[in-house]
Specification:
- This protein is an all-alpha fold and 242 residues long.
- It folds into three domains: 48 residues; 120 residues, no CATH class; 66 residues, no CATH class.
- It contains 13 helices and no strands.
- The chain is globular and about 55 Å long.
- The termini are far apart.
- The C terminus is likely disordered.
Amino acid sequence: MMLKRGQWSVEELSKLRSHYGRRPLAQLARELRRTPETVRQRALRLFAGRTRVGALADPECVELRLMVGVAPLDAMALVLGRREDNIVEELRAWAATKRTGRFADWELAHLRSCYGSRPDWALRLVLGRTLAVIRRRARDLCLGKDRGVASVDLPQLEKLVKMRPQPTVRMPRWTSEELEVLERLYRDTPNFELAKLLGRSVKSVIAKANERQIKKSADRLRDMGRENVRIRHGRRSQRARG
């Protein structure tokens, strides 16, 4: 792959602003076709000059949750415009939090977004729940781990959080019977229902369908669009009430 050099385009800078610290640096560098060091140096310039004080606001906490496990402390501080000790204080408070009972909407959203790509220790830290509970809820949602999960440890929390390396996940091969079910039902069946039926993750079902070039039907795509609108409307209503 040929690496890019020189001036950054508006599209590249937009992607850097949206994803720096939220994706592993090596992955983002590959997507931008730049070296990791070039990406890091450009991020230093892009996010420079912002310093906030006081407690982290809710939107900042949302951003921080996305960075735990894939970004070092200096990248977190850079993106949020905070001092490193301010970030550590917030993370220590999270480490001391123990949640039980029903998962809140933000927890479910974080699981759906990050379960596959974040190390287990990062999920425990962000959600304040035991790994057994997190895994059980992930199975209910038909979520699975990616093959290779990057893990960027936070030495500043080593006395509070056990940051073990993430084991490599072995993906079971698809059987001919499973492929027949996929070919027959994928067009008109919700991905979650099909994943439940096959005992696989939603991501695995979608990836295999893409690999075999199976597309959703027009009717199913319209239903998915309406479902997404209802979800977005529900989230806006909850924010307005909160």
